[in-house]
């Protein structure tokens, strides 16, 4: 798609009058009710961005300017053009303070997306992820930048810009340009006001006239909605900006053929019918099930049923016992609880990347725990060679003063869909023993593995099936498991952590009261696990259908020349490799921005797949596609993905 030209965005603040770069064109804007008005005057190739019904209410908004939080008034008097580096702008701001200890604040800074990024439809695609601004030199190397200012790749504009200004202020303080404490206070205060781009404006798709677009677009922009009431806490304010929405306009081949194809939810839709039939025939409860019972940590009946089940399928060296098992409302809760039990605020847990998208939030959001990321050559992290990468990352983090308390793995792996070989698991256990840290193995996809006839593939091996003698103290090893993946029972909200560490188990049980599971769910799950003949047939069918689903999806991807990671033999998803499409955007593109742009175009075409940044991928251009849906939905989703890539 051709690049739009001459897009200028200004805020409703009349005081903002930055000088435009040569060749740019000013457009008049107006407003006074909290709106940002954007007038676009540019041309692009006459290709409508979406293959969906253009009568739908959504916006294709060519916008190549991000409105960031307020900055000091010194910016107003500085002639800003696109060649300025952001630190030059900050220099001008600090210089304008003339060494005074107080700064007046107003106005906006405009961060121009690199290379005139084309359209980004649906303002909500901005959400709160910062997508990079190479034109101003803000994010040339996303990883290095994030490390330098202690920000992650999905931090909000507020966090990135605020931390960047803090870093600059500290660098400049020795020159005596301003008082650091005052400046930091002002930065913190002003960055509390943040524009939000997570609301979808209701406009018809903009029309192209002779290949040109020259219309004024009103884009609603929402600030923190706490005026007139006591403010939330700092963490409450941060959490209020989280993206927790899901599309409700879902695809149906008959009733809603123009709906959104969602290939993001990792649930096993192949077996939902069988599970629902079992529940409907076993939903008899007695009056005791209506009380709290003894269920904060899982009923004894359920814990015993799970222990017996895992003893059959996991082949542990020493049997699982009900006393080692603690249940809560999902593995998400138990990941967080495990982090709290093992780590003090400020401590860290190691994770190889890419990884399960929920790990960072689960382990960090409420705990004060940090993540130490481990990167490997490519995406592979399953051989003995990769253990050396863990060791190097540990020593580097230790040199920085990071106190690492544990390592978490996902086996079978999400999103790569592979299992760890026994030798690698042993080496990781030895590594954890040598560093005196805990090993947490998330084995929630353990029984969603399947043998392939077209190539050899690693079978699932639990860490509990490896003899720890002479390797590691068994009390350092903990297993996460649950009902959501292998059994398609995410709606039951049941997960468990299994440990031979009595103190760990007691601590987890003490905290699990805050996320105790439903007594009805526990009774149904116990009945399910106790029916051994049904469970065996159920899992056999699930594995057969997952294998068929993966092979069918791989064939569709091959037919459309969409590259993917072809080593998977477990789980519900396939890891797409779209890195080859990034160079077509030009050398000036930040690759992470390019990944976001691809994702936004998928969304415009009505198909949702998770991008690699969600899984902390080390390189941009990866996407996860969940294939455990009906074949019509899958075909339509891949058709839309292919359409976008063919017109990219």
From TrEMBL:
UniProt entry keywords in alphabetical sequence: Pyridoxal phosphate
Pfam family, one: Aminotran_1_2
InterPro entries on file: Aminotransferase_I/II_large (IPR004839), Ethylene_sulfur-biosynth (IPR050478), NHTrfase_class1_PyrdxlP-BS (IPR004838), PyrdxlP-dep_Trfase (IPR015424), PyrdxlP-dep_Trfase_major (IPR015421), PyrdxlP-dep_Trfase_small (IPR015422)
Keyword Magnesium: no
Gene Ontology terms, MF aspect: pyridoxal phosphate binding; transaminase activity
Single GO biological process annotation from the record: amino acid metabolic process
CDD domains: AAT_like
Aminotransferase class I/classII large domain sequence ranges: 299-641
Origin superkingdom: Eukaryota
Transmembrane segments: none
Alphabetized PROSITE patterns for the sequence: AA_TRANSFER_CLASS_1
Family to which this protein belongs: Belongs to the class-I pyridoxal-phosphate-dependent aminotransferase family.
Protein name (database record): Aminotransferase class I/classII large domain-containing protein
Organism whose genome encodes this protein: Clonostachys solani
Phylogenetic lineage: Eukaryota, Fungi, Dikarya, Ascomycota, Pezizomycotina
């Amino acid at each position: 798609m051709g690049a739009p030209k001459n897009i200028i965005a200004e805020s409703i603040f009349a005081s903002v009058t930055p000088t435009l770069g040569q060749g740019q064109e000013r457009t008049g804007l107006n407003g006074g009710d909290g709106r940002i008005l954007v007038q676009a005057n540019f041309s692009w190739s006459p290709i409508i961005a979406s293959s969906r019904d253009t009568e739908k209410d959504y916006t294709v908004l060519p916008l190549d300017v991000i409105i960031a939080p307020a900055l000091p008034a010194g910016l107003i008097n500085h002639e800003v053009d696109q060649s300025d580096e952001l630190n030059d702008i900050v220099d001008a701001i600090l210089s304008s303070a003339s060494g005074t200890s107080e700064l007046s604040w107003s106005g906006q800074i405009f961060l121009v997306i690199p290379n005139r990024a084309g359209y980004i439809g649906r303002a909500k695609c901005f959400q709160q992820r910062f997508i990079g601004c190479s034109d101003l030199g803000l994010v040339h190397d996303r990883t290095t930048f994030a490390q330098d200012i202690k920000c992650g790749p999905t931090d909000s504009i507020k966090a990135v810009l605020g931390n960047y200004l803090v870093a600059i202020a500290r660098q400049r303080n020795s020159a005596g340009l301003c008082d650091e404490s005052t400046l930091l206070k002002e930065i913190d205060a002003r960055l509390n006001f943040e524009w939000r781009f997570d609301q979808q404006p209701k406009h018809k798709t903009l029309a192209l006239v002779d290949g040109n677009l020259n219309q004024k677009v009103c884009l609603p922009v929402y600030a923190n909605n706490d005026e007139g009431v006591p403010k939330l806490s700092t963490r409450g304010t941060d959490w209020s900006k989280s993206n927790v929405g899901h599309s409700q306009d879902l695809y149906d081949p008959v009733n809603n053929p123009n709906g959104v194809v969602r290939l993001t939810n990792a649930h096993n839709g192949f077996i939902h019918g069988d599970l629902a039939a079992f529940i409907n025939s076993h939903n008899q409860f007695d009056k005791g099930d209506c009380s709290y019972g003894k269920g904060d940590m899982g009923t004894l009946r359920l814990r015993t049923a799970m222990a017996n089940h895992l003893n059959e399928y996991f082949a542990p060296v020493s049997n699982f016992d009900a006393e080692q098992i603690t249940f809560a409302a999902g593995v998400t809760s138990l990941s967080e609880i495990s982090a709290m039990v093992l780590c003090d605020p400020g401590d860290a847990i190691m994770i190889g990347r890419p990884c399960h998208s929920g790990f960072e939030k689960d382990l960090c959001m409420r705990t004060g725990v940090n993540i130490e990321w481990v990167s490997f050559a490519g995406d592979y992290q399953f051989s003995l060679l990769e253990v050396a990468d863990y060791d190097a990352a540990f020593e580097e983090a230790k040199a920085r003063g990071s106190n690492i308390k544990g390592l978490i793995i996902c086996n079978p792996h999400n999103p790569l869909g592979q299992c760890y070989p026994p030798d690698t698991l042993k080496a990781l256990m030895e590594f954890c023993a040598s560093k005196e840290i805990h090993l947490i193995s998330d084995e929630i996809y353990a029984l969603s593995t399947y043998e392939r006839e077209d190539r050899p593939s690693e079978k699932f091996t639990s860490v509990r099936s490896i003899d720890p003698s002479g390797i590691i103290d068994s009390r350092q090893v903990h297993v996460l498991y649950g009902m959501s993946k292998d059994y398609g029972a995410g709606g039951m909200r049941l997960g468990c952590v299994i440990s031979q560490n009595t103190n760990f188990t007691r601590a987890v049980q003490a905290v699990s009261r805050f996320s105790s599971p439903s007594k009805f769910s526990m009774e149904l799950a116990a009945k399910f696990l106790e029916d051994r003949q049904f469970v065996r047939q159920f899992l056999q069918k699930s594995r057969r259908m997952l294998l068929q689903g993966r092979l069918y999806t791989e064939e569709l991807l091959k037919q459309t020349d969409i590259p993917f990671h072809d080593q998977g033999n477990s789980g519900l998803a396939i890891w797409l490799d779209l890195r080859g499409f990034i160079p077509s955007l030009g050398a000036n593109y930040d690759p992470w921005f390019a990944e976001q742009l691809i994702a936004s175009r998928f969304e415009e075409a009505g198909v949702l797949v998770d991008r690699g940044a969600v899984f902390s991928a080390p390189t941009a251009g990866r996407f996860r596609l969940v294939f455990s849906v009906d074949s019509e939905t899958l075909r339509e989703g891949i058709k839309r993905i292919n359409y976008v890539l063919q017109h990219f």
